[in-house]
Amino acid sequence: MTGTLNFAIVGCGGITLQNHLPGLALCPEVKVTALCDADGATLERARRQTGVTITSTDYEDIVRREDIHAVIIATPNYVHPTIALAAIAQGKHVLCEKPLALNYADAKAMADAADRGNVRHMTAFTYRFVPAMQYLNHLIKRGDLGQPYHYRSCRLQDWGTRNLGWRQVKKLAGSGELGDMLSHRIDFAHLLVGPMQRLVANTKILHHDREGKPSDLDDWVGILADFRSGATGVLESSKLASGRNESWRSLDYVEINGSEASFVFTTGEWNKLQTGKVGGSGLESLAVPREFWSWPGSSRDPQAGDPLVTFRYDQAWEFVDAIRNQRRCVPDFHDGARAQAVMEAANESAESGRWFDLPAEN
Ligand SMILES: NC(=O)c1ccc[n+]([C@@H]2O[C@H](COP(=O)([O-])OP(=O)(O)OC[C@H]3O[C@@H](n4cnc5c(N)ncnc54)[C@H](O)[C@@H]3O)[C@@H](O)[C@H]2O)c1
Which of 97, 125, 252 to mutate to test the pocket of ligand 1 (most atoms within 8 A of CB)? Predict the structure, then answer.
């Protein structure tokens, strides 16, 4: 597709301002044409900040417009499927925030509808765009890990007891730490080690009240998994790791051990990995080569701005490039649905105390 691509954004809160608008601003021949937010004051703030004049509090008004080619959905999780299906029905390309839905059936229905509609579809697993994660993926695909033995991820933040808005309400978010933070690390696992076969999980609500408002979602989650490749998985994520700080200033750790080597990734070390060879004397630092500092083809200058923030902008570039070249987005709705199946199994396992098998198509 050539010429200017017109975008609409539905949901003009935190992630739209932090990631989507600056990312789209770096893409040539892309225009944010319309904005939607259910909250009038948030919409007005976004209108003033962007100068976009077409606005609505109703997503239907926006996705119906013929001058819109693509829609970014950045609302609370429960409404992602409804908006995505409406946009797909109008032939729009869709980038949807994670987690795609509240359950696997809805996420899979989104992926299937987007395929049937022949539109580009992308799940915002933003941390795939960290240069060190890209390089790690490259090394593993090249065979440097050998046979995968163990995948381990640990995401530790200190969010204390503060109110989390819709993020602490099950009917709006679906899950707590599991969908909010662990979903990205489940996606890393799929990328690096392949599909899971079965899992057992536990979740914990340690604060049932956050600043006077009820919280019915997990503050902590742990998953023990078997991958189809035979590798084992241990995944943990917490909002209550006191003193660990938040966001990219806190711990986001992935370690993979294989028959040939081990690799360690942390988001905070955006251009470094640690590695050790089998039988070696310990881990050492491995610099990420310059060609991995931005996404293939992206015109973003990796040395402009804070690299712990700006890698996220390559997500918009990937979506735009996939639309222009009519190719699959990486990661797409099927990747989002695959992670959703793991989240659903983890919730069911935490409730029942039993191991759960993942769907065969996963
Ligand atoms: N990819 C990432 O790294 C990342 C990071 C943060 C958030 N997220 C995801 O992005 C989404 C939004 O998170 P956020 O932090 O921006 O939340 P937010 O609360 O800051 O913003 C959400 C906005 O959606 C609006 N909204 C609610 N219902 C709506 C509807 N029906 N139609 C239109 N607008 C509606 C709200 O008024 C609000 O302004 C969530 O799915 C979250 O999981 C992803």
Answer: 97
